[in-house]
């Protein structure tokens, strides 16, 4: 069985825009990937580690535990052996409490890649390959989260390109989620159910190809 760890935030957790509710597993993109690959006789288990508000390497001044670097090496230990780790982070680096730009978020992704590769896994277990996904650029935030993401669209300009440069330096596969979906028109930040389905169907092909290469 291929175990795949998805390390991400609320876009992947499946929060329903403008609510505190969550889409069921079958409608979240990792669930779509798992079901699609299983239907193609690829034995895979998607392990979701998706925390609302998670940054790449930055602290949330209001909630503890949102720094994605903290504890990441231990999560690799916990879930090993892993065939693949999927990183999809960056959106929360642009919350209004932060001054960060796309370069900062991309450097954060680079630090996470390094942490995954140095995790002290058991002898003989594989160092997992890492697929980095750039999240779609935030739109104009609406509803209750508007103050939290004020200015995010401008600060995140060029995120996909910045992350891609880091993945080239680190020799990691890269995919731009913004090439197949936008963020929700409801809140401008998260993904609607149909966007999860479309992204999941696309990523099933990407991930399936990576598993076949390995």
Automatic annotation (TrEMBL):
MF (Gene Ontology): hydrolase activity, acting on ester bonds
Domain annotation SGNH hydrolase-type esterase: ranges: 9-201
Matches recorded under SUPFAM superfamilies: SGNH hydrolase
Name by which UniProt lists this protein: SGNH hydrolase-type esterase domain-containing protein
């Amino acid at each position: 069985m291929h175990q795949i760890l998805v390390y991400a935030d609320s876009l992947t957790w499946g929060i329903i825009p403008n609510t505190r509710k969550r889409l069921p597993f079958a409608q979240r993109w990792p669930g779509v990937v798992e079901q699609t690959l299983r239907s193609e006789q690829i034995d895979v288990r998607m392990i979701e580690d998706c925390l609302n508000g998670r940054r790449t390497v930055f602290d949330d001044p209001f909630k503890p535990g949102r720094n994605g670097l903290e504890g990441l090496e231990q999560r690799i230990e916990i879930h090993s052996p892993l065939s693949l780790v999927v990183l999809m982070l960056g959106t929360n680096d642009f919350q209004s409490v932060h001054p960060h730009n796309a370069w900062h978020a991309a450097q954060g992704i680079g630090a996470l890649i390094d942490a995954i590769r140095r995790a002290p896994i058991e002898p003989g277990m594989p160092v997992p390959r890492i697929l980095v996904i750039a999240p779609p650029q935030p739109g104009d935030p609406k509803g209750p989260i508007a103050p939290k993401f004020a200015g995010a669209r401008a600060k995140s300009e060029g995120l996909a390109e910045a992350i891609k440069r880091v993945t080239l330096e680190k020799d990691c596969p890269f995919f731009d989620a913004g090439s197949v979906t936008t963020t929700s028109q409801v809140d401008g930040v998260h993904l609607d159910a149909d966007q999860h389905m479309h992204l999941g169907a696309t990523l099933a092909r990407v991930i399936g190809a990576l598993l076949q290469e390995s």
